[in-house]
């Protein structure tokens, strides 16, 4: 009996065929493609499937509102490959250029063709002092405590407990919060809870623009 | 969106106006393509530019930016004049037969009630017969909505429309014929829009016009139809649902106004209508207060209603916030996952406003132009006193949680990898910042109670991250007594016995009895109807309903207009449903079916009159009907009336006030902003992704070959694009996708500007928004970025 291959397996094979260079780490792939001279197709040994050890995680694209499902292939903390989730009815395996490049936000391939963290990511708490022309690295505990002090100072200096008619308004107009349609529902729910608890009424985000 | 992307395959004609899915919602091209390939669906694209979407269209209609109302009214007028509208739908499911106050009138661009720069809406009300609205089911009374609409749109004949929009008359007639072919019971027209409709000083009325056209043709509430506002970000639907807005709390419960709602009783009395589903509002609001303030919220203390901050009735939207900042009134700013220094209007002035802040907390993945405004080109950091905390956050697959796509599907995302370095999820950051603030207030401070009493107990022992399941359950709702997760908002109570953070999300975390996972985590492709409803894939709010207003898919007796597209059906004794009914179909206590006559008169359950509004007696600040006005900056006079612009458009002050006069000789061209498939919004992420940066490395302005020739500009040359607000330099992209409009005998050039670029990242470039105006729609204050005046010169 012929072995049945599932749609997912099929796509995995297909992914290897079409996006081979992106998935293969070894040096063998580079000279093979580099020697594509004289209308000869390159031949080279694909070797073992390099994503076979990868962890697969179902996710949803971080960009437009289509909500394409995707599968993140990762090894350790590096993203190896992203492909459309064939089961997700929104996209049934297909993705646009942005979605396909989603891995770039975490992992890029450096000059030595090694996967490394995208070096433009902010990986430390950064602080810019008044008048300064540079960022300073700080730790979380310091930043959280300092932010809380700033919030308290601004809020308390500008707090309106009651308006001119004596109505309890519990607000500060000197703090604003803007964002974000790029954050999850649960995150946004916490943002607005905390801002409203502090009396912030200047709340807005992408939906306005 | 009223419908879902997976429903697009049921459409017969697509009208894409003010959207460019090929670049901005690429997956939509596949969904439309399925309908085109399998059922011969046709595609109409109306756009100022010959976009990639237009390249796939059966009919491409050019349309000058900001003239959508004239275009849509032209189609409506054609439908009415030629009897192509869906008469039974219009009669039964809209307010066409309702009589309007005899004092209502419209003359020379103004509706009745205009005085001192604003409208009093009294004369737009319905005529009443005692408690009932007066109606004329023959639709002949000159005071009925249908006759008022007919008269109003009769001014928009093909010739007039095309003079305004610049659409060739023969093309426009083809659009009318093709789109009006969907005004039949067995045809579905899907109207798709995006920011081309909304970013306008009459954006809300543009949207009204799309909905009115769909009502006239009977295209709402049916499979394959709908008013489908395609949303730009992965979770802009969800962030809006959570009330990240000054005028809404969660689930579209209006925020609290100090003058109107000094007490809970005032809020409930004034904001709860007697009819419509919103009559349940007290249950939603009180359950929300209970979720927020927990045991502290009691009946005796009005469930801590006093803790909710009350606004002053003034504008606190994005543009107003930046104006306040420029006036020095705002001292602290949480810039959370958004980059207004590139993405907001009039961004040169907006960046300048940031200099007035004492502190900014920026939470982002990459160094955005907002976080690093103090080192923007031409800025001297020594002069800027603002302290900036830039907090590193996790990307979508470096954390878990849900996002709601444009179809209202709330899908779960699992965590694949750890965030790099010291980056943390936004959930953790918010949780920890507010914990730190609470700690400060434990030692006292101004009115600490709302801060200390807010439920904030999401520690998960043994874990660094807060307990997302607990947060999600609070949003979903539970019974207070036993903590049981609720399955539906129909279970919510107004006595404090239920807690629910976001009533429209009720059910999203309820465990599916068969799949044994919370609804938002479901991954079943089951689709028994074959209509692409996928009821067991994630969870669609509200109530897992995939197509809203679906009562309208059947006639008043409950028989589907089109059996092939059956969503709900009354078989004489019971309802048989493919989708979750959007109407009362079963008595909650007895379980008996409710006969179709009851729901037929209440098919639009969110409006107080129970039907769709062709005429809006309330709800809009700028008229009960749309009317064509020119964009605030326009090269031509309004052909329809002496009223050049929306008379109640919002304008801003100080440096934000600069606007070019009509037909300005210094700024003779129309500027419009747009997006590219390779970049996302302000480019904060994508311009730092090497593959995408390589694909679209640099800012450019698209100009027509004719204009390029006139200016002596070759493709790739540097040009200076200016408006009254400033100048940007970028490369010229010369392609015939841009053609001048022929407006009333005049040729007017268009300049297309992608708005993704800024000074940070790998791919950098001039910021288009540096030259866009600060103007707002009067209802929602969205800026008018799609139509403004500019000039171009060789740089
Ligand atoms: S892959 Fe493309 S079409 Fe799909 S959600 Fe992401 S950005 Fe949108």
From TrEMBL, chain A:
<keyword id="KW-0560">Oxidoreductase</keyword>
<dbReference type="Pfam" id="PF04879">
    <property type="entry name" value="Molybdop_Fe4S4"/>
</dbReference>
<dbReference type="GO" id="GO:0009061">
    <property type="term" value="P:anaerobic respiration"/>
</dbReference>
<dbReference type="Pfam" id="PF10518">
    <property type="entry name" value="TAT_signal"/>
</dbReference>
<keyword id="KW-0408">Iron</keyword>
<keyword id="KW-0411">Iron-sulfur</keyword>
<dbReference type="GO" id="GO:0051539">
    <property type="term" value="F:4 iron, 4 sulfur cluster binding"/>
</dbReference>
<dbReference type="GO" id="GO:0030151">
    <property type="term" value="F:molybdenum ion binding"/>
</dbReference>
<dbReference type="InterPro" id="IPR006311">
    <property type="entry name" value="TAT_signal"/>
</dbReference>
<protein>
    <submittedName>
        <fullName>Formate dehydrogenase subunit alpha</fullName>
        <ecNumber>1.17.1.9</ecNumber>
    </submittedName>
</protein>
<keyword id="KW-0004">4Fe-4S</keyword>
<dbReference type="GO" id="GO:0009055">
    <property type="term" value="F:electron transfer activity"/>
</dbReference>
<comment type="similarity">
    <text>Belongs to the prokaryotic molybdopterin-containing oxidoreductase family.</text>
</comment>
<dbReference type="InterPro" id="IPR006963">
    <property type="entry name" value="Mopterin_OxRdtase_4Fe-4S_dom"/>
</dbReference>
<dbReference type="GO" id="GO:0030313">
    <property type="term" value="C:cell envelope"/>
</dbReference>
<dbReference type="InterPro" id="IPR019546">
    <property type="entry name" value="TAT_signal_bac_arc"/>
</dbReference>
<feature type="domain" description="4Fe-4S Mo/W bis-MGD-type">
    <location>
        <begin position="54"/>
        <end position="110"/>
    </location>
</feature>
<keyword id="KW-0479">Metal-binding</keyword>
<dbReference type="GO" id="GO:0008863">
    <property type="term" value="F:formate dehydrogenase (NAD+) activity"/>
</dbReference>
From TrEMBL, chain B:
<dbReference type="GO" id="GO:0047111">
    <property type="term" value="F:formate dehydrogenase (cytochrome-c-553) activity"/>
</dbReference>
<feature type="domain" description="Molybdopterin dinucleotide-binding">
    <location>
        <begin position="672"/>
        <end position="787"/>
    </location>
</feature>
<dbReference type="GO" id="GO:0030151">
    <property type="term" value="F:molybdenum ion binding"/>
</dbReference>
<dbReference type="GO" id="GO:0042597">
    <property type="term" value="C:periplasmic space"/>
</dbReference>
<dbReference type="GO" id="GO:0051539">
    <property type="term" value="F:4 iron, 4 sulfur cluster binding"/>
</dbReference>
<dbReference type="GO" id="GO:0009061">
    <property type="term" value="P:anaerobic respiration"/>
</dbReference>
<dbReference type="GO" id="GO:0008863">
    <property type="term" value="F:formate dehydrogenase (NAD+) activity"/>
</dbReference>
<protein>
    <submittedName>
        <fullName>Formate dehydrogenase subunit alpha</fullName>
        <ecNumber>1.17.1.9</ecNumber>
    </submittedName>
</protein>
<keyword id="KW-0574">Periplasm</keyword>
<dbReference type="GO" id="GO:0009055">
    <property type="term" value="F:electron transfer activity"/>
</dbReference>
<dbReference type="Pfam" id="PF00384">
    <property type="entry name" value="Molybdopterin"/>
</dbReference>
<dbReference type="InterPro" id="IPR009010">
    <property type="entry name" value="Asp_de-COase-like_dom_sf"/>
</dbReference>
<dbReference type="InterPro" id="IPR006657">
    <property type="entry name" value="MoPterin_dinucl-bd_dom"/>
</dbReference>
<keyword id="KW-0411">Iron-sulfur</keyword>
<keyword id="KW-0479">Metal-binding</keyword>
<comment type="similarity">
    <text>Belongs to the prokaryotic molybdopterin-containing oxidoreductase family.</text>
</comment>
<keyword id="KW-0732">Signal</keyword>
<feature type="domain" description="Molybdopterin oxidoreductase">
    <location>
        <begin position="1"/>
        <end position="435"/>
    </location>
</feature>
<keyword id="KW-0712">Selenocysteine</keyword>
<dbReference type="InterPro" id="IPR006443">
    <property type="entry name" value="Formate-DH-alph_fdnG"/>
</dbReference>
<keyword id="KW-0560">Oxidoreductase</keyword>
<keyword id="KW-0408">Iron</keyword>
